[in-house]
Amino acid sequence: MTSQRPPAPTVAVIGAGFSGTMTAVQLLRSASAGRPLRVVLIERSGDWGRGVAYAATDAPVVLNVPARGMSAYPDEPGHFLEWLRQRDPDAGPETFARRTLYGEYLAQQLTDAATDALPHGELDSVADEALAVEGSGSGSGGTVRLASGAAIEADRIVLALGNFPPSDPPVTDRWFYRDRRYVGSPWSPAALVDLAPETPVLLIGTGLTMFDLIATLAARGHGGAIHVLSRRGLIPHVHRAPAAGCTAPVPAPPAGGLRPLVRWLRAAARDAEARGCDWRIVVDGLRPELQSLWRSMPIDERRRFLRHLRPYWEIHRHRLPPPILDTFEAARRAGRVTLHAGSLRSFRAADGETAVEVELALRGGTTRSIIVGRVINCTGPTSEYRKLEHPLVRGLFAAGLATPDPLHLGLETADDGALVDAAGRPSRIIFAIGPVRKGSLWETTAVPELREQAVALAGRLLK
Ligand SMILES: Cc1cc2nc3c(=O)[nH]c(=O)nc-3n(C[C@H](O)[C@H](O)[C@H](O)COP(=O)(O)OP(=O)(O)OC[C@H]3O[C@@H](n4cnc5c(N)ncnc54)[C@H](O)[C@@H]3O)c2cc1C
């Protein structure tokens, strides 16, 4: 099926999570009589503004960031808090709002931007899956092919594909990964379906997703044993509101690689504590510098960071709302949750196939077997794009339009977000935003960075 090229320049945005939605909003805000624009926002779930993180759910999951940090607009830092206060007058800057509510907030930004943009800006919301992206040949535009058979011609195309389910952890015999007791995506609505309240569960990974699952299990009245496992058994630190007068130090991280940077971080944290403040202000103060620090680091240094420091960095950077940690610790004290440090060794069917015996190789050299009725992979979004079953990504690789970054954290992109092809050339048509840019930017997964990226990308697309 072919379609007529519309008169106004068209930007097709694939994915309507935070990144795609806010790119569309920023584009629509810039439409004017002198600059008419059509934005086609394509989302396979048919839910606008939600994505994986802010999906509509009964689960009592809350944002990982207090309301003061969740505005969708970099130039209006209080925007989300004001919106929230209209619904909950008790909400304050340190409130951790429900994630489903945040999805409503984003959906409303899109609706408002689409209404305000008329008649110069037009939004087409298309509930469909993008299966392929093709260049036009003339280099002046491209085509997005959809699962329904429709095709959208656009002058610019944005990949806002977001977070992909985790990779299966390494084990010698992978039979269990095809078993119905294994859940490969913790965000799948099927993850907890048919789970009897007393069934013991193993959650692999001890980051923020694991805590979501614990909260969701508790809300469903699950009373069975919960085992949680990660290589080092580390869990995230909690958020703490900065004490009065404790502002982030003016960041002056040293150039020259990882070692001086770690020394600087430790010294700055000690200094903050000595001033009666908290190490968190140092991590938060460094955050706006992270992308340029990452880019300035030689590839071997980045590799060393991933190999040795990443887990320690993650637990300081991605923090938990305090009540979530309290619930977890209470369940641990009651013996309902057991934290294991180690790795998976093998799976064996148990209890006449209704359960699985999992052998763990624990840190310190011992092993332990546990019997559970379900295993849920909470190890975090995969970045091994070469192994994804995603038809669009596969097609981009096959056509040579995309290439993984050297560390296989995402897709290679130029500084302005242009997708870099297999020959190393930045595209003039296809751009990317969000977690797919992790290899180029490292810090590109959360709202404070994504809202800035949406503004910058919209500006770039309109050039
Ligand atoms: C569970 C979870 C909780 C989080 N909580 C927070 C938080 O509290 N605060 C914070 O700052 N950050 C949080 N994050 C980080 C999060 O990555 C960002 O805030 C943001 O949601 C990322 O948005 P995104 O649009 O880039 O990706 P996603 O939310 O993953 O959205 C991508 C969208 O693209 C769609 N899509 C993909 N492929 C196609 C295709 N071929 N065709 C059509 N549609 C397609 C998907 O269906 C999806 O809706 C959280 C992340 C997760 C996973």
Layout of strands and helices, then pairs:
Layout lengths: L9 E5 L3 H12 L7 E7 L35 H9 L11 H19 L3 E7 L2 E6 L6 E5 L4 E4 L1 E4 L22 E2 L17 E4 L3 H12 L6 E5 L27 H17 L5 H7 L3 H7 L2 H19 L4 H12 L3 E14 L4 E8 L4 E6 L1 E4 L13 H8 L19 E3 L5 E7 L5 H4 L5 H15 L2
Parallel strand pairs: 1-2, 1-7, 2-3, 7-16, 8-14, 9-10, 9-14, 10-11
Antiparallel strand pairs: 4-5, 5-6, 11-12, 12-13, 15-16
Helix pairs in contact: 1-3, 1-12, 5-6
Flavin-adenine dinucleotide binds next to helix 1, strand 2 and helix 12.
Q: Summary?
A:
With 463 residues, the protein is an alpha/beta fold.
Task: Explain this structure.
- There is one protein chain.
- The protein has 463 residues and is an alpha/beta fold.
- The protein has three domains: 10-61 and 98-164 and 383-461, FAD/NAD(P)-binding domain (3-Layer(bba) Sandwich); 175-236 and 320-377, FAD/NAD(P)-binding domain, CATH 3.50.50.60; 258-317, no CATH class.
- 30% of the residues lie in helices and 20% in strands.
- The chain has twelve helices and 16 strands.
- It is globular and about 65 Å long.
- Residues 14-20, 42-45, 51-53, 63-65, 129-130, 160-163, 209, 392, 434-435, 445-447, 450 line the site of flavin-adenine dinucleotide (FAD).
- Flavin-adenine dinucleotide binds next to α1, β2 and α12.
